[in-house]
User: Fold these one by one.
Assistant:
Number 1:
Amino acid sequence: MAAMQDTPIDSIPQAYDTVTKAFLSGKTRPIAWRKAQIKKLGFLVQDNEDAFVRALEQDFGRPAFETITAEINPVKAEINEVYDHLEKWAKPRRVKTSATWYATKPTVYSEPKGVTLVIGTWNYPITLLLVPLLGAISAGCTALVKPAEQAPHVAALVADLLPKYLDPTAFICINGAIPQATALLKLKFDHIFYTGSGTVGKIVARAAAEHLCPVTLELGGKSPAVVLDDADIEVVARRIVWAKFTNAGQICISTDYVLTTPQTEPKLLEALKRALAAFSANPAASSSSEKSSTSLVHNPNYSRIINQNHYNRVSKLLDATKGEVVVGGGRDEKERKIEVTIVRGVKPDDSLMSEEIFGPVLPIMTLPTLDDMVKFIQSRDTPLALYVFTQSKKNRDFIFERTRSGGFVQNDVLVQFMIPGLPFGGTGAAGYGNYHGRRTFDTFSHERASANVPTWMDMIMASRYPPYTQKKLKM
Ligand code: NAD
């Protein structure tokens, strides 16, 4: 795949005019047209699986297995779900009303919001771009889509494929970085769907406010994994460390840090080490010394850090920690790889607790009681995900009822993104709005209220007209 070409800034208004005209022409409204485009989006993914896998290998060495299972398959599932349910979701809905208003046939129409903008990010650059685009298509909107420049091979592939599969007057890819994003944000959209950091999320929300444009912000944050004394430690360890291994922990809903008790910490650490050693077997190793090595630096099953900036950022957090590195710690700047690194003895003011790690470093903090853990979580920004490992419903409920988070999972990680039927989105610092399944359609739709008031109803409504007499007040 050729390198990503930046879209010239001065061509952005023309692209905007094209998708605006396409929307105003009405051609995106018929359900049949939307379904045909959704089908083509499905073919875009299906026909080009290998190209997507290669692009992600080039962008950050992500193994094919992870691209297929965590991006291609979930995107296909979303496309199928929206395709299968679109008629039902888009059907006008008569609402229940009072006897007085029954004759007005009050009805809610799910109408396309209009011309939309989707800004994607790089860590899951297929699903985080194409699923919001699916939402725009399904709702009858048009869209400009901006892939993340940090994953340039995927961005180039999307720019190449979009006009080959989708209506090029309704969906246009804009490639580039901050200059292109800034030019886009000056335009008046009817919805902006942004995935990325909170810092940029604020820039997007401010720009959108100028046009009173509604926004979905899919942001990040520090998502805790609370491990209680009654947890099934072997399984817990596998699951927690998996969320740091896969995509090298560059996941918005990764287990950012562990909160556990001083009693459970030692056995958890041992189990985490065992789990990581098992994951680190190198399938490409030829010699027996390579086979027994658990170094992740040359392991093809393990992704790179996306770029030098993020490599430096995570390295700096690790260098500044006052905790004790108990597992991993190896890195290779040339390979841009940082091993899964577990750090114990971490205090609330540690560098590793200062910002979302968004990488393969796992700090472990201990607190004596459940109550202390809840207070700690409450004192921090609302996380995108909260994971609680316990066999006890009472403990689970205690935490659930006293905290807030985008999603909540007992005894597992990451699955809230995959389970059909669950909405995905944050609250507080983790963003607002959500999508997946029906919400993907709803996000890009406006619920337009409609009533048809028969003129004969003036027989019963005439009292509303002036003059306002005392007699009318008593009616
Ligand atoms: P980022 O926020 O810098 O980039 C994401 C997008 O924003 C890119 O398309 C980029 O071009 C654009 N962008 C960057 N600067 C901009 C500016 N000044 N104006 C307008 N647009 C701009 O990416 P990042 O910080 O590396 O992303 C990581 C963050 O994203 C983490 O916090 C992570 O948790 C979050 N994230 C959230 C989700 C989710 O679904 N909630 C998914 C993935 C990542």
Number 2:
Amino acid sequence: MISRNYLLAAVFMAAAPLAAVVPAHAAGKLCQVQITANDLMQYDQKEITVGPGCSQIEVTLTNVGKLPAAAMGHDWVLVKSVDLTAVANDGLVAGLANNYQKPGDPRIIAATKIVGGGQSTSVTFPASKLEKGGSYMYLCTFPGHYALMKGVFNYR
Ligand code: CO
């Protein structure tokens, strides 16, 4: 015999995942950005503009080079422009195991991991972390890279 309570529990458990998933899809606009990096220590874009109307921002970084992460790894790290140098300097000593990012660095708004040649990675973050018209930049925190590997990030 199946009790009424058991049936209610089964219905609830079946419905719960749907309730959790549907609002996420309906939450708003996902703005997607693609950027590549290569063995010449270059991103393919020096400026990225996102908006208006984004609720989430997804950045996908593809390392189109051939060298491994230990030799020519790249990440994509978003910061306020004023924090660029300090985040890069603290990343130097953080090591590859930490993706050359200071663990828990509150100045890092969003960051991918470091990827080697032929690899791709992405990060998704809420647009609410940004102020419209704010001064933001992105950089690669691999040691020695940010002098060349940086760009302006515009949020509108
Ligand atoms: Co790099």
